[in-house]
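Late entry, evening session. Most of the bench is empty. Finally got around to the prediction I had been postponing all week. Sequence below, unchanged from the version circulated by S.P.
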Amino acid sequence: MRRSKPRFRSRPVAAEAGVLTGFHPVREALRARRRKLGCLRLEGSPRPEWEELRELASDAGIRVVEEPASLGSSDATRAPWVRLEAGPLPELDLSVLLAGTPTPPQTLLALDGVEDPQNLGAIARVADASGVGGLVLTHRHAPPLSEAVSRASAGAIEWLPVCRVPNLVRALRALKEQGFWVVGADLEAETDLFSAPDAWLRPPRVLVMGSEGSGLRRGVTEAIDHRIRIPMSGRIDSLNVSTAAAVILFELGRRDRTREGRVGAGGPEPTDAMRGVARATRPPFPSGTS
């Protein structure tokens, strides 16, 4: 039976998301082609990097306009030299994200109250590099997927599947019903990341990261299966949320690669005993969690 084409649902974003600037965000947007793309403008003296952008734009059927630096500008030398007209990034329903293309994701990253676009972008870059299969955000207390996010992610957000949910607690419970372990990063956790039992961290799993100021909310904490902390040796007792995400996600990947000769960030399909529930017998995806 052919898999139906995933449906994307866009959410309104800030007006400045209509233009991407900078070489890496523009290049990845042209490569990924997940946005509606418009004209590519190359401003200033020609640069070697432009040739790749020209080819990508040509392949995507995008018009290219080359022009000198704006005259009369108070600081023309600082004007962005690459601009791409672009619509908002698509956002998936949670059920579509779990269906996966071509295979369901084995690692998800959920954010609870991370509102700074720079942090979200840095986290997206880490998530893409570590093999995360999707990012789960909330409608409230999470920034739109704007130009600032794309720039901070060096274009990684252009590739990373993202879904938004109205209620993170309900979404986590739905993920647990689908066989996911839910692991939360918590400074107050008794167990540290490197001594945590391997059974806690097997895929499929979702890692939940909270805000730097207040951490995980109480309701979210109650929906978590296991809490872990990163052991700290210095005088500063915490890390930036994107740095903390990198430490944990790459440790998960290391365990996957060394566990019984498995390879890859998510590893092959776990056994039913490891999951606690067989994929074939999982209940239908609950309504009201997208």
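Two things to note before I forget:
The chain has two domains: 8-86, 91-281.
The longest helix spans residues 241-258.
Will write this up properly tomorrow.
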